[in-house]
Predict the 3D structure of the following.
Amino acid sequence: MRLLINKIFLSLSVLSALIGLAFLAWILITLFIKGLGSFHFGLFLNDLIDGGLRNLIIGQFILAGLASIIGIPLGMAAGIYIQEYGQGRYANIIRDLSDIMMSAPSIVIGAFVYAVVVVPTGGTSGFAGAIALAIMMIPVVINTTDNMLSLVPRELREAGIALGASKYKVIIDIVIKAAKVGIMTGILLAFARIIGETAPLLFTSETSNYFSLNLTESFPSLTVSIYDLANEPEEASRDLAWAASFILTVLVLIINLSGRFITRNKK
Amino acid sequence: MPVLNIKKFSFTYPGVDHPSLKNINLPIKKNKITALIGPSGCGKSTLLRSMNRIHDLYPGNKYEGKIEFTDENKQISDILDIKKENEFIELRQKIGMIFQKPTPFPMSIFDNVAYGLKIAGVKNKTELADRVEVALKGSALWKEVHDRLNKSAMGLSGGQQQRLCIARAVAVKPEVLLFDEPTSALDPISTGAIEELIVELKKDVSIAIVTHNMQQASRISDYTAFMYLGDLVEYDKTENIFLNPKEKKTEDYITGRFG
Ligand SMILES: Nc1ncnc2c1ncn2[C@@H]1O[C@H](COP(=O)(O)OP(=O)(O)OP(=O)(O)O)[C@@H](O)[C@H]1O
Ligand SMILES: [Mg+2]
């Protein structure tokens, strides 16, 4: 009897795993077929207004890059504070807040930034988009920093103190260095996550058909344009959306894999 | 004049209602090796970690009594009086510590040894290089690492890492070195090298060493203190402790009847 239950249970788990994998494969295969079908290198040379994706890819990287410039220092500072300085209560409050922020739906973050940035400044802008992405990124960076620092052995901190270093010098010179690889990997994964986001940008930076470096107006975004293009009636627009999705997926995959690659090589 | 003179010293960890060390009186004599022995949990590490106040990394400890430190200029000060950050830095540069597990910093071999020197304010490149070399030679590591000073210290063997930690502590020219079971994570050959090194070091520094290894204590130390349940039971010349201890407890312990 017990054996039978075991067998049933095992087959059920294998089956559900297979179903999951099948769907994933289906998505990827469709994406590759449709995406590769409409892919050509001209996409990297022209802006959307001329049927290419150049401005969108660059714009997406600028938004995610700016979000990282805001989010990484803030997230790391908070992570260092709660792990190294926070005593009990305050640290736990920040930790809980960060966990809540991490599970907040991205569209809610978009709506929040719309209310506190877009409305007061009178319109969508690249800045607003970057802020929304930064808010998505911060809790992930806090969490990684917190976890990776907690793995650094106590003795290493004590050895620094025993040489006369002050606590903050030990953190900067020794503890962060010891946790560097883990923190970097976490940041890279956080970056991979925000670069593929649509919802936080949808009504904060929107998108633009033209190349732009002006962050005070609507800013070109690959993900938002995929959303727009996919909703258009013409076949050509939807083909372009497929090609854009394909490029985005490959980008995210590359970033993810390099994150894994760093961890594997440094451990 | 002992370099460290521990007088009526008691220590209580935060959140513990009884002291872990009770009324300890113990001298650490100049240019001698003093071994602290005793069963696990008797307070050896706690005592050693009071001598450089590393306990203070964690708040809420209670110290009572005195630990008098006589520096090279014969100035006497009580370690337990220290409150200011810069005094702590000074104290810890004069009283170095080596831990049970080797603790190389995640940086190059050179930077490891130079770390304490830079904190002490040595900036001149040639002076740094000279003092790193002297420290590595003094720790019998120079021959093995002189051609890879810029390689990461994490690539050294356990025994080499421990000698690196000694070099790092020696580089700042301390007056006292505290060793907390420095060989218990090492193989016999590395252990032998470290023991030789410690004996060699006593020319320049005074040494306190915690050890579980009775042979080690008798091989290298000049004085031995036997501790039990937070008390200092007996302190004497090492040969007296091992050949004719005065206390029954000491005799039981060194003959292996408990521990
Ligand atoms: N951080 C701490 N907080 C509370 N009690 C502690 C703490 N560290 C040690 N103790 C207690 O203090 C006593 C002495 O511990 P200590 O580590 O000094 O012993 P030890 O002689 O070094 O033992 P071992 O040989 O196992 O290293 C023990 O009873 C231990 O449980
Ligand atoms: Mg101990």
In short: Chain A has two domains: 1-37, 42-266. Chain A has eleven helices and no strands.
